[in-house]
Specification:
312 residues
Length: 312
């Protein structure tokens, strides 16, 4: 992921008023997660501000491993940073606030109570990046994807809320959106992995399962060299289909969400899934071309997402 520049980090780490801290989170989300940010603008003010706060907490967690400063540190120092961040996160959930990001997170947790565990699981996902750079099977990769992205679905589902038709029903009859929320996070992370194969190889990381490389007769040496051949295209087509299946799993739960959350979620889902289509149009070349959904297409798709949100 792209890291925060020094001036932006200084703003969030300094004492700020609550509106100032939320504005800092908004700017951060707008700058580094354009597709995601567009979806948040379709939400009511309180919900979109909470999502911005959670997003920036996740970015700050990711920075512990992937910032330029972190990449220059030895493994034991990185492990120490993660341990300290876990301690601080636990303290945040106990009400201790140290800076602007803590302030907006404390306000978000007060408005939209949620469990601590997904946040601890995400930190554990960063520890996985510290310990390993290869994944033998998809089962191994799925666990990683849950920890670094599926957890985001769990963090945000309380913000999204349920449709009143379900909240008024007995507890035993209320739908559980957790599986769909996790599925969307995993789908997004699989999309990130496919888009960022070229970038990740520069860090010595290969997230594509080793069993899949063998199955399609494509070697690590070819991946490191950025070779695009028929074996690579077949491998990537398989990976794209897997990611689309996870997006499909997530769709089932969107209809249960509150009305003011369905359109933003459908928009984000459809636009992020569109990255897979761009990878196909680039003939699976993710080494020399970065796949992204053009801004014009994003705005053209919003009415379609709105219509789907009303009908499903």
């Amino acid at each position: 992921m792209t890291v925060l520049v020094a001036s932006e980090m200084a703003a969030l780490r300094s004492p700020l008023s609550l509106p100032q801290a939320y504005e800092a989170c908004r700017r951060e989300t707008a700058q580094w997660a354009k597709t995601f940010y567009l979806g948040t603008l379709l939400m009511p003010r309180a919900k979109r501000r909470a999502i911005w706060a959670i997003y920036v907490w996740c970015r700050r967690t990711d920075e512990l491993m992937d910032s330029p400063q972190a990449q220059a540190l030895p493994e034991d120092r990185l492990a120490e940073r993660l341990d300290l961040w876990e301690d601080r996160t636990r303290a945040l959930f106990s009400g201790r606030v140290e800076d602007g990001l803590d302030l907006v997170m404390a306000d978000t947790l007060e408005r939209f109570p949620q469990p601590l565990q997904p946040y601890l699981d995400m930190i554990e996902g960063q520890r996985m990046d510290l310990r390993r750079q290869r994944y033998a099977s998809f089962e191994d990769l799925e666990l990683y994807c849950y920890r670094v992205a599926g957890t985001v679905g769990l963090m945000t589902q309380e913000v999204m809320g349920l449709d009143p038709a379900y909240t008024s029903a007995p507890w035993s009859e209320r739908p559980d959106t957790s599986h769909a929320a996790v599925a969307l996070g995993i789908a997004n992370q699989l999309t990130n992995i496919l888009r960022d194969v070229g970038e990740d190889r520069s860090r010595g990381r290969i997230y594509l399962p080793q069993e899949d490389l063998r199955r399609f007769g494509y070697s690590e040496a070819e991946l490191m060299a950025g070779t695009v051949n028929d074996n690579w295209r077949a491998l990537m087509a398989f990976q794209l289909q897997r990611a689309r299946q996870w997006f499909g799993r997530s769709e089932a739960g969107v209809r249960w969400l509150a009305a003011d959350a369905r359109w933003p979620v459908w928009a984000s889902l459809r636009l992020y899934r569109g990255i897979l289509d761009v990878i196909e149009r680039h003939d699976y070349d993710v080494f020399s071309r970065r796949a992204f959904v053009p801004t014009g297409y994003k705005f053209l798709d919003l009415p379609c997402s709105y219509l789907i949100a009303q009908l499903r």
